[in-house]
Amino acid sequence: xxxxxxxxxxxxxxxxxxxxxxxxxxxxxxxxxxxxxxxxxxxxxxxxxxxxxxxxxxxxxxxxxxxxxxxxxxxxxxxxxxxxxxxxxxxxxxxxxxxxxxxxxxxxxxxxxxxxxxxxxxxxxxxxxxxxxxxxxxxxxxxxxxxxxxxxxxxxxxxxxxxxxxxxxxxxxxxxxxxxxxxxxxxxxxxxxxxxxxxxxxxxxxxxxxxxxxxxxxxxxxxxxxxxxxxxxxxxxxxxxxxxxxxxxxxxxxxxxxxxxxxxxxxxxxxxxxxxxxxxxxxxxxxxxxxxxxxxxxxxxxxxxxx
Amino acid sequence: xxxxxxxxxxxxxxxxxxxxxxxxxxxxxxxxxxxxxxxxxxxxxxxxxxxxxxxxxxxxxxxxxxxxxxxxxxxxxxxxxxxxxxxxxxxxxxxxxxxxxxxxxxxxxxxxxxxxxxxxxxxxxxxxxxxxxxxxxxxxxxxxxxxxxxxxxxxxxxxxxxxxxxxxxxxxxxxxxxxxxxxxxxxxxxxxxxxxxxxxxxxxxxxxxxxxxxxxxxxxxxxxxxxxxxxxxxxxxxxxxxxxxxxxxxxxxxxxxxxxxxxxxxxxxxxxxxxxxxxxxxxxxxxxxxxxxxxxxxxxxxxxxxxxxxxxxxxxxxxxxxxxxxxxxxxxxxxxxxxxxxxxxxxxxxxxxxxxxxxxxxxxxxxxxxxxxxxxxxxxxxxxxxxxxxxxxxxxxxxxxxxxxxxxxxxxxxxxxxxxxxxxxxxxxxxxxxxxxxxxxxxxxxxxxxxxxxxxxxxxxxxxxxxxxxxxxxxxxxxxxxxxxxxxxxxxxxxxxxxxxxxxxxxxxxxxxxxxxxxxxxxxxxxxxxxxxxxxxxxxxxxxxxxxxxxxxxxxxxxxxxxxxxxxxxxxxxxxxxxxxxxxxxxxxxxxxxxxxxxxxxxxxxxxxxxxxxxxxxxxxxxxxxxxxxxxxxxxxxxxxxxxxxxxxxxxxxxxxxxxxxxxxxxxxxxxxxxxxxxxxxxxxxxxxxxxxxxxxxxxxxxxxxxxxxxxxxxxxxxxxxxxxxxxxxxxxxxxxxxxxxxxxxxxxxxxxxxxxxxxxxxxxxxxxx
Lengths: 307, 770
Fold this sequence. Notes:
heterodimer, A: BirA Bifunctional Protein, domain 2, two-stranded antiparallel sheet, 11 strands, B: alpha+beta, Alpha-Beta Plaits, 5-stranded antiparallel β-sheet
């Protein structure tokens, strides 16, 4: 893993370095959640686990999808599919800021040369009824991370405050590798011993951006998506209405509804008034899940499988 | 005296909250110390990104205090004595002293409390100050319930160098602080304020004083610019912000691609300021922005800041590319083609889209145009164009440039300059000190836009209450007042008074149309629309035959109306009229505030606004004339004569010699103003010379005032009133008003009533104090 100081980390090297760094701080390293989400925060490991009285420390990389941001692979820094690296420490340790700065050192940002600043930016995600106070972290005027102390999730006050860190991986990598076009990022270094070639971000994802943008903007079938949205909504509501509600699967359906709404939005078929209405519908689902989850948590015994 | 010193050290405090937090902390500590009997001298407080600092000189301990508690009389019943002893902490009544006053002897308990060490007082007050600190937004951290703006890390609390181990938020105060993260983290041991400042500055590389950081940023930035023949574009708000973002400010001059200078200056300035917190720089010779900017970094970098400049440059370039992209995209279609898109932007759920609003404003601006000397076609066109830039990408990104971007696009298309000015200025004035539009087309659109907003929210009954004014309606009303007054816009119509009210009523129909439910109601709206349109045409300078024709049309419409529609129509007009009157009162309230700010006396404002006059310009002229008149001797004396007349009348009513109704103000519609409510209040010419002289003077003054008021010559009206002074004075000196002869007395009272009613045509002098 260790790299020479003069060659910057590859994209995957950046991910691996962050994983190792946070693993060393005691975080569970999870893999990406297997449902489309618009941001790493929406992973149940953040939204649901930040609720309730149990400590929880986790780090994971999460592909994030924002259909409306697609640019057919023609824009040097806008993507409909990109990666976020997410860290949650609950409760946040007193030296969390120092730990965060240590992670910048680990990925090769020389803090003597670069001006790191914590600029007020309070975070809010109305879809999951969550908000917190914190900063956007600037490196020479560029936002490299979002740093938030959660105060409420699912409209509920938190017993323990989670410190959330979100690194925008492509942007950070572009900074570390000093490239101006995301597709020029080195994803994987060449391996001379095995003769494997260098792989660029564009080799991995350019076609995906072209095709997904074409689908999102031109071929997605709004009527069918609307039907799917209604199905996901109904399924979520049904799971929450059970005598013994199932908040975890219900939340997955809330996330599906959220992504389907984003697809509709990208197609430009949602009027501003309808938009508000859809957002409210998704929010009601997510809040319902959060509340059911908290209620359920109190009934689950620690390490029930060992009893 | 002892030196008290405290530092509260936490993670980065939002820049905008620091200054206020510093003064809140100083006030809370000073108040707390004083309340405990300590004197507090030499108070100083400082703020920075990670710390709040307070120091003051206080005594080592609070003074001894003797308190006297007065008790019951000597010989008072047992329970009273017992209660007193308990309250005063005495075990026996003999411990109390006996004092006496003129009523006799009583007990006094003297309790003396010893002074306390100041360190005890500090330990007591600091935790509660921190627990209740008034941050605009605060947060919990970890498992702690303590709230602070961001996680609290350390505290220093020293009295003459000795640690006072106060506790708050799970932190115990020590004598340790930290410096700059890269240049001198420390930790440092501190023994007092002077040592603190010196240690942080020399070893910690932290400038504790925000003032000092500002001075350094400003002078370094000016110098860096001057060295390159450039000039800093100064910005106090930004300077405050960057001084709150740096502990050790280092100023750097960055550069950008000169191609970006083709963007509007405001777009560049806003991009640099809001997104990057950097200052723009201009060429002093041309006054134009230069392809440079000032970055304020927080450290000295070993490469001289090259990497920092490069990084900032990249972001700025990306941001400006976005702005340029937006502009190019926006300019692909003419401004007016954005009009259709306004249909999908909601202005208010009950008031329709921005396009609905623009249509109403266009119709109203067209009707207002002749009043303000504007071309009606231009006003209508400008009103439609004015909101178009709201859906351009540039304005979505830079909201504060609304109006400016539309005007610029329209100018680039070669559009009419009056219309461009109207697009640019129609949001003005945005506040009490913002400039008011003067171009007639801009005046028509600005006035129509604000009136539509006001009548709209009145039509749906969403009025400001108390401190809640989510749609900024007070500002809109003040805008109306200022545009009308500063451009001398008149609302005097042939139909006489009530004409501004008529305009409000007229404007309210637009938003009211949205409320039409069934077909009767819709027809009622149509009917009202026809009537108001005709009534409006009556107010224009048209020939008599045309006027007669319109009047005939109105009559015919009214006769032909169907019963159910008529019923709906009556309800509609009643509702509109009530809401319009309420809105008028709201606007007049803004006018009062505006006049008070201009130095007008509030009692005179009330006096001059007591009538049903609603033309704002007339009201102001009236207020000014009355205030000027009352500052003269004549005015003062006349006021005294007036008050004497009214007081006599009132006392006669009180004695039962006169009926209440005698004093009712005259109804302007059903009776002639001069003779009050009832015909029998008309006096006859008295036989005595003084009464006769007053009678004659009143006749003359009445006519003069009436003609003067008709041509709105308020100083002439005041002159007319001033002529009454001598006859009134003579009348009161020479004539026994309450004569034994009932007929004479009645006639005299009628004369007094005349004085009041004539004066009341100008203002209600009873409302005036003094």
